[in-house]
Amino acid sequence: PDPVSQLSWSDYQTGCLADRLAVGDQATCHHLTGLTVQWTGLVERVRIVQRSNCVERMVNILPDLVRRKTNIKCLLGDKFGSCMKQTSQVAKLLCQTRTQPDLEDDQKCHL
């Protein structure tokens, strides 16, 4: 395992999570990404920094015409279903937006 850094939560919070962090400081704090730390406490919020979907990447390489004509997103993925089942406002908004009747079929599916 990687050695554990001496960076404390308090120092990280003060230095990198300030409300009005300057752009240069944001870039500096980014260099802490991947550092192994050992902190204990309660997690109150989580933010997704990056996501990866290799199937989506491969499909997006295809020309638009091929994607639309083959409806590959729907073949490999799922069609947006009933919006009533969604529990969050954002999920409902996405569902309602992606199930509009005037959209192309491939825009009504996700991978």
Walkthrough of the structure:
The chain has helices at residues 9-16, 23-30, 54-61, 64-70, 72-76, 89-98; strands spanning 78-79, 109-110. The protein has 111 residues and is mainly alpha-helical. A two-stranded antiparallel ribbon has the order 1-2. The longest helix has 10 residues, at 89-98. The protein is elongated, with a radius of gyration of 21 Å.
Which labels suit this protein?
111 residues; two-stranded antiparallel ribbon; mainly alpha
Explain the layout of strands and helices.
Blueprint: H1 9-16, H2 23-30, H3 54-61, H4 64-70, H5 72-76, E1 78-79, H6 89-98, E2 109-110
Antiparallel strand pairs: 1-2
Which secondary-structure class do the elements indicate? mainly alpha
Shape: elongated
Q: In which order are the strands of the major sheet placed?
A: 1-2
Overall radius of gyration: 21 Å
Low-confidence sequence ranges = none
Helix share bin: 40-55%
> What is the number of E strands?
2
Mean pLDDT: 91
Main sheet attributes: strand count, strand direction, barrel closure: 2 strands, antiparallel
Helical stretch tally = 6
Beta content comes to: under 5%
